[in-house]
Prior knowledge:
Layout: H1 8-14, H2 18-44, H3 48-64, H4 68-82, H5 89-103
Helix pairs in contact: 1-2, 2-3, 3-4, 4-5
Amino acid sequence: MIDQPNLNYVNELAGDDVEFRGQFIDIIKNEFPLEKEEYFGHVSNARVKETAEIVHKLKHKFNILGMENSYKLAVVYEMELLEGKHDSQSKFNEILETIEEYIKTI
């Protein structure tokens, strides 16, 4: 089962600073779709090293969104890619879709 994204970490970081919270959320909402698109571009063009690099970058968004198990899966997937494997790709893609749906609601 995929973790459900949340803003607990963002809220904890921001505390009572509503402006900071809003800026943080805006960054997530703006960066994530671009990074997701970049990921799928690398996958479709079989650019393994670049795919691993964007997975590395995306996994930090998972952490920010409170998705601990997804973060762990991304670590495994990144290593798989560097070994020429793709075992975790479908789960990783599901996580991306879950986050995409979530950020539409925040």
